[in-house]
Amino acid sequence: MTNGSTRNRLKQKVKSHIPKDWLTEIRIAYRILIETIKGIAQTGFVINIAIITTMAAILMIFGTVFRTTLSLSSIVDEMGGSLEISVYLEPQADVNATIKQIKSIKNVKRVTFISKDKSWADMKREIDMPDVDNPLPDVLRIKVNNVKNIDPIMAEIKKLPDIQDTGYVKDLVQKVEVVNKISHTVTLVVMVVASLLTITIINNTIQLVIQSRKEEIEIMRLMGVSNWYIKCPLVLQGAIYGFAGALIAIVPINVVQKYLQMVHEHFSIPVFAFAQGLVVLSVILVGVIFSAGGSLMSIKKHLQV
Question: How far apart are CA 70 and CA 156, in angstroms?
Fold first, then answer.
């Protein structure tokens, strides 16, 4: 037993010092690449162009909707940051105490006090007012950190003493939030549809390749060729279709991004951080991952390896 265990340890030690045959690995990778190119060639020029352009159209729609959603999110965030709650104080209100209480509320970003005398003076400058006593109340302008927090903050403010009334452009906020939710839903639906279409197209394409090379694949299996060597060129072929379609789709998506950039600049709204890079990366990943996934599904379904 001791001699056997010593012999095994020596074998492991010797094996660890044997250099790997990197040339063999390179040859295998080369053969896989050749088989991939062969599969693309056997599919035919016209079919290849049809597959790539169809995928480019699908990915372009996805990328355009995704980029538009990012812009809408930026607009909503900016509007939320600029919207203010107006709080009208009672005549006997302790302004400093009320401001302190409001600032202690979570998600309140800033509180600005506007005296009734200033409001009355501004109004008299703009409108020819009769010589009457100032009927306006003192006002607090409250800015919140996110438009979603307006209603909870208003509910807290209404509980405070010395508050006469509150208000904000509720209809506008609600409409903007609805548009934002719709854009996110549309993006998700488009992504799911794009993924399903991509998988279906690639599935059918790889099925044709498998049928055209059925005898060749059977021979490789009889010769003891490993399953991954048979699968890899087909998966890589699908990934190449997805990548090529994504590269074509990026061109019109960049045009859309330029126009959206102009809209942001016109209204002085900051662009979503890394929007362009995020959209390009997402389009490439969706194209490659789902195309490769469609190939793998087709292999499992029609090749049984």
Answer: 31
Burial 4-43 (b: 16+ CB within 10 A, else e): eeeeeeeeeeeeeeeeeeeeeeeeeeeebeebbeebbeeb
**pTM of the entire structure?**
0.66
Of 195, 208, 196, which Cα lies nearest the Cα of 298? 208
- In the chain the first and final C-alpha atoms are separated, in Å, by 41
Contact (Cβ atoms closer than 8 angstroms) between residue 142 and residue 108: yes
Using alpha carbons, select from 75, 88, 99 the residue that is nearest to residue 147: 75
**By C-alpha distance, which of 202, 229, 182, 227 is closest to 30?**
229
pLDDT in tens, 236-293: 988 999 999 999 999 999 998 888 888 878 777 777 768 888 899 999 999 999 888 8
130 secondary structure, DSSP code: -
Pairing of strands 139-144, 84-89: antiparallel
Angle, alpha carbons 108-114-119 (nearest 5°): 145
Cα Rg of the chain (Å, integer): 33
Q: Which residues contact 230 (CB under 8 A, 6 or more apart)?
A: 217, 220, 221, 303, 305
CB-based contact 211:303 (threshold 8 Å): no
Task: Identify any residues that bridge with 87 across adjacent strands, giving them in sequence order.
Answer: 140, 166
From start to end of 97-195, where are the E strands? 108-114, 139-144, 163-167
Helix%, strand%, coil% for the chain, nearest 5: 75, 10, 15
SS3 54: helix
Residue type at position 175: K
Q: At what angle do helices 275-302 and 170-212 cross, to 10 degrees?
A: 40
Kindly state the DSSP code that residue 270 receives in the 8-state scheme. Answer: P
